[in-house]
Amino acid sequence: xxxxxSLPDLALRSHGGSVVAASDESFADRExxxxxxRPHFQPHTFGNKGQVYDxxxxxxxxxxxxxxxxxxxxLPGVVHGVVVxxxxxxxxxxxxxxxxxxxxxxxxxxxxxxxxxxxxxxxxAPVRGDAxxxxxxxxxxxxxxxxxxxxxxxxxxRLRVHGEVVPDLSLWEGMSIDLAALENGGLVVGxxxxxxxxxxxxxxxxxARDQAEGWETARRRGGGNDWLVVRLAxxxxxxxxxxxxANLVYxxxxxxxxxxxxxxxxxxxxxxxxxxLLPRTRLQPDTLHRFRLDVAREVTHVRLDIYxxxxxxxxxxxxxxx
Length: 322
Known about the structure:
GO molecular function: allantoicase activity
Pathway: Nitrogen metabolism; (S)-allantoin degradation; (S)-ureidoglycolate from allantoate (aminidohydrolase route): step 1/1
Mean pLDDT: 95
Largest sheet: 8 strands, antiparallel
Number of strands: 21
Number of domains: 2
CATH class of the largest domain: Mainly Beta
EC number: 3.5.3.4
Number of helices: 1
Strand content: 35-45%
CATH topology of the largest domain: Jelly Rolls
CATH architecture of the largest domain: Sandwich
GO biological process, one term: allantoin catabolic process
Low-confidence stretches: none
Distance between the termini: 35 Å
Shape: globular
């Protein structure tokens, strides 16, 4: 039921998401819904609107109706599940919620979105206060926006929209792109260790501001090495690799290597189908490394091996789709 929780949060602010409109935000700002990280709370912290909440909270509704917030997904795609987190909201959480979705082209205004024809992906359901309320989604259509509806009013700390990224890459036809980027449809599908942070971080947009925004493994006490596998945005040819160890001063890998496989011809599970893209190469701490590849073969998956362990801020695989 909760397998989708390992998929990226399509609505996350750091992935480009935005809360573009809300019916009300009298007590706490709507933008908090899509902030990264767990919600915070400090008791007896009062402002001019009452207790300060790290979430979205509407006023007490005295008449009919309900409150809502519209989120533009930073990563359009197929929604596999939604989490409505009411952390710290106990006597002021909604009684029921339901979630709708919409695929919109271009850049519609909030007014245009409110008049659009929305599709329900999570039917109306009761929610618990101070809890992560988890709802699987079985609709497999692509969406660009979601609308969280709460009845009749109250507070929600976070809205998580987990799913599979399905971008429109037609804009980049004939041009080079980052084939590994999450926003282009890349996905980490295998990883040896994610003790300190998620491997999805290495293919996220932007630069890592600290170690927590990269991928870092536990200290390896035995033999072997750590690794991750990225399913590319589509079959392509990788020409330039970026391995960024930014912020990793004493825990960067000593070396790294890259391998590729074309799953249209060899299943990734078959070790004999993989071939070397970048030989085992020394890395420096807190450094952006760029390497031009001599191997111009089509690949669908790329494996990054780091030796023996450590962390990486970003992995970029620049090339073109075939």
